[in-house]
Write a structure and sequence with these properties.
Elements lengths: L1 H14 L9 H5 L6 E4 L1 H4 L11 E4 L8 H24 L4 E3 L5 H14 L2 E5 L14 H18 L4 E4 L2 H10 L7 E3 L21 E4 L8 H11 L11 E4 L4 H10 L1
Parallel strand pairs: 1-2, 3-4, 4-5, 5-6, 7-8
Helix pairs in contact: 4-5, 5-6
Length: 260
């Protein structure tokens, strides 16, 4: 997921020991003396070891945990707060907490560390959940996720640095979300692309590629609509090569294929 990639980039940046006087604000901001990664097991397995950074990898939760999403969220929140308390006790003034998503398990522990310990706090916002009246899917879950993000956005106003991946989102946060222009840094793709590992093998050539979990909330059907609109622009309009990279729910795959 995007959170995994950003955590990997953070550790990679640290291991190269960037020059603290470098002109890149992000490089300076994320060049601490040690890196601690706080993550559930699902993400922990995909992260490079924090060994060699002076820090550690701290597990908050199993793969999903019993009791569904909400109980999993609660356990992650409680454990992440405890872990951050232990880290911040040692040296809160020089601690930077980076929340790798804009939702409860990442935002609330970061807000706690900033409020209780005075730690510096950075985060990100890469998409806005649309109003439930215009979003397909369960109305209950749509309202809950919409309310969750709006609450978290209010919390994120307290972050010293907010990373977004496009100028339209930056403009919305400044114009409608109560954020300051100087608080937001636009970083396309959410990670510095040259910092990511190179592909291990050559990939087929595609006209369009979708990267993300294949589910309604991630916009896969919007991607299909864009692909259909894009087809006439292809040199060979009869053949449009599309790639889909991400976890696929086989039960939902038939819906995607039918739309395509």
């Amino acid at each position: 997921s995007g959170g995994d990639a950003r955590a990997i980039e953070l550790v990679q940046r640290w291991k190269r020991r960037p020059d603290p006087n470098a002109p890149d604000d992000l490089t300076r901001a994320f060049a601490p003396s040690e890196v601690h990664v706080i993550a559930p097991r699902r993400i922990e397995r995909q992260l490079p070891s924090a060994q060699g950074t002076g820090g550690a990898t701290h597990r908050t939760e199993g793969a999903d945990g019993p009791g569904g999403v909400m109980r999993c969220y609660a356990r992650r929140l409680i454990r992440a707060r405890r872990i951050l308390d232990e880290i911040c006790k040692a040296d809160a003034a020089d601690t930077i907490v980076y929340s790798s998503s804009g939702f409860f398990p990442d935002v609330l522990p970061g807000a706690h560390a900033a409020r209780r310990w005075g730690a510096r706090w950075a985060g990100c916002c890469f998409h806005l959940i649309e109003h439930p009246s215009t979003r397909p899917g369960s109305p209950l879950w749509n309202w809950l996720s919409y309310a969750e993000q709006r609450y978290c956005l209010r919390k994120q106003r307290g972050q010293q640095l907010v990373i977004v991946d496009n100028t339209a989102l930056r403009d919305w946060l400044v114009g409608h979300g109560g954020f300051r222009p100087g608080q937001i840094h636009v970083l396309p793709c959410g990670v510095a692309v040259p910092e990511t590992p190179p592909p291990v093998s050559a990939s087929p050539r595609f006209d369009l590629v979708f990267c993300g979990r294949v589910k309604p909330s991630k916009g896969i059907l919007d991607f299909v609509a864009v692909a259909q609109a894009f087809r006439p622009r292809c040199a060979d309009s009869a053949t449009l090569r599309i790639g889909i990279v991400g976890d696929l729910d086989e039960a939902y795959a038939a819906t995607v294929r039918a739309a395509a």
